[in-house]
Amino acid sequence: MNLRLGRFGLQESACAVGLGALISGIFAVDVRDTFAQGNLCYAATAAGALLSLLLLMLLGRAMARFQAEDLGGLLLDGFGPVRGAALGLPLVLGLVLAAGLPLFRFSLAMERYIFVEADYVPIVLYLLPVLLLLVLSGMETVARMAKILLIPGAVALITTLLLASPAFDSAHLFPLFSPGFSAFIDQTGEALFRFLPPGVALFIAGRGCQGRANTLGGVSRGLLLGGAGAFLLHLGLGLTFFAPDMASLSAPVYCMTMAARQERMALRLDVLALFLWVATGLVVAAFYTYAAALLLCRLLDVKDVRPVGALLVLQVVGAVLLFNFDSDMILDLVRCVYRQGHLLLLLPLGPLVVRSLLQRRRP
Amino acid sequence: MKRAAFAALLLLLPLLAGCLGGVPLDKYCYVLDLGVERGDSMPYRFVFLLNEDTAGSEEEGGDKGQVSMVSAEERSLFAAIDALAGALPAQLSFERTTLLAFSRELAEAGEIVTVTDGALSRLKIRQNVRVIVVEGDLRDAFQGLVSEGDPSMNRLKTNVRLFEENYGYVEDWGLHAMREAFANETGDALLPYAGRVGGPLQPDIAGGQVYPYLGGKLLGEGQIKTSLAGSAVFAGERMVGVLSGQHTMLVLLAKGGFRAGHLRLPWKGEELDLALYSLGKPCRSWEEGTFICEIRLEVDLENPSQVDASSEELIAATEAWLTDELERVFRITAAAGADVFEVGREAICAFRSWDSWRACGFSARLQEIRPVFRVQVKLSHSPRDPALE
């Protein structure tokens, strides 16, 4: 057995989930479609985070009912080895895509605004060894890295908001609730794909978390903190740009740091903030990728997580490369991932939750 | 052993990128300022002020602070860069660009967007780069900014900030704000307007007396020959006129960007010099075609002992004069189709969707707006008692 799970506690779990919710909540947004008709994203982010928390709490309850220590075990216990494995595959795919979306946004920002002469592909390929190293190091390393990066992540969030604050204007939020209530429901659904993955990933790695209570505590605290951070940043974005202007930006979070006139001292802080975002984003991507690899190992009874992890890292990097591919079919596919990605997670988890609610507690 | 070797290899990786300074991969000419104006034989002339801060310059005895100016006439910015590629010792980089200057002719033709659209982001020019409109030949204007003590033209950039913060004569605009003003009808751009000292300048569209505070009308002469001369007023993407520093100050009073400034108040056939200080952001609102703006100011008499009047009289006169002037400037700019008071930012709050906002054609209805300005003045020096109250 070489699952590289290790042991980590409540703080590490909360940090991993918190950073995951923060990074996915901010950077896994389809900028063009979300802001084309107005800005509801900040409200949908808050609603999506709270709804995800509710769903994850129900999932935690299901694990308690089945006395499963992790999500892989729950799938196998709940549906048997064949059906459990089949239901687990969409989860793996969902986590791989969730890992790829923020990295795609970071790579775009670096290609457009930082590295003058570089192309998109070499920039993405630079992410590969770091991601591989983190995933192969295992969950304990990733969780401890997340704890270390909590302060830099908070610094990145605060720096970004502070740099943009001179450009804040409440008029940018208007027309208030512009695309309407149905768009709000749609965007809340999309937000589930940003806030479910960190919780699901921690449930998958629950065995290393020193007890179910720690896992649940990590998920709830992390999701609340990360969700609050993502909400604040989306509100900051809404205060900085009019929605149609934002729809035309490839990296709104980076652009918001340059929206206000700055004097020389603050001139390069935007790049520093982006560097911190990228470092945090890499750990989050490693967290999701490792969790996907671990789930696959559990479901297919593979004893070594490293080859599976390496394979999934290649898939994540491949997805990041594919997301930027200039073709209508790929663009439609990427749009589908943003809009319907949450179904990849909800389809397997929904029946589990329903079944646990209907089933009596095991003696 | 394997781990140690792997770690050593990782440590050596930065050498491949030239991060440790041993391998200068390329040399760059950093464009500090970029100007665009009409060309003689091609549509546009692009003027670049360069800082030849190249990787090997120190070793080769180069001067790090040295600047030079180059220009090229072409149809687009990319073509101009290509044309200059063979004539420069290094590749152009726009990473350090801090000023974009457009000639008045180009701004009046509404071609700023045509020239810059797409090009600036592809060249990685930062969104917060400062934008100004310049009167006359850009090469002359740039040359006028270069002095012995300040070869990189920082003085003009500092002056924009200084005049905005201390006097309210200009507003500091960045590329992002300008694009936003061009794209959404929520307010029009009011870019700093610069010209040669003593050279011809456009008259103020609001008329009235122009005081000799700013460039073009400066009573003194210094090393720097190009200076700020007020603000270029835009209606959408097209420049429609110029506002003097004093009238810009009135606009900033109503917009909320004003901090402190000076005013000459007509008083019994003479003029009183007043220092103005903002007492907080103005309270702005929009009520069915009426723009209401309440402004609170502290006024300080510069020579209190010379004024023969009560505080009440002076306060009433200042409030009345400022109210009249604000309304006058508002109506003149609205008649030119320019929403420099950014009334659109208040009006958009009454709309439920972007489609309905766009359909209403707010810019075309600017003249129908009824402005209501309420100025509240607090006098910090009483004319009868020059000591601070």
Q: How is this structure best summarized?
A:
Chain A is mostly helical and 363 residues long. Helix content of chain A is 77%, strand content 0%.
Account of the 3D structure:
Chain A has 14 helices and no strands. With 363 residues, chain A is mainly alpha-helical. Chain A has one domain: Amino acid/polyamine transporter I, CATH 1.20.1740. Chain A is globular and about 55 Å long. In chain B, strand 10 and strand 11 form a beta hairpin. Chain B is globular, with a radius of gyration of 25 Å. By secondary structure, chain B is of the alpha/beta class. In chain B, strands 1, 2, 3, 4, 5, 6, 7, 8 and 9 form a 9-stranded mixed β-sheet that branches. In chain B, strands 10, 11, 12, 13 and 14 form a 5-stranded mixed β-sheet that branches. About 6% of the residues of chain B have low confidence. Chain B has one domain: GMP Synthetase, Chain A, domain 3 (2-Layer Sandwich). Chain B starts with a helix and ends in a 10-residue tail after the last strand. Chain B contains 12 helices and 14 strands. In chain B, helix 9 crosses helix 10. Chain B is 30% helix and 28% strand. Classes of the chains: A mainly alpha (363), B alpha/beta (389). At the A-B interface, helix 4 and helix 10 of A face helix 8 and helix 12 of B.
Record keyword descriptors for this entry:
heterodimer; A: 363 residues; mainly alpha; Amino acid/polyamine transporter I; 14 helices; globular; B: 389 residues; alpha/beta; GMP Synthetase, Chain A, domain 3; 14 strands
Strand content of chain B: 25-35%
CATH class of chain A: Mainly Alpha
Q: What's the rounded overall pLDDT mean of chain A? A: 91
Total strand count of chain A, please? 0
Mean pLDDT of chain B: 82
Domain count of chain B, please report it: 1
What's the architecture of chain B, going by CATH? 2-Layer Sandwich
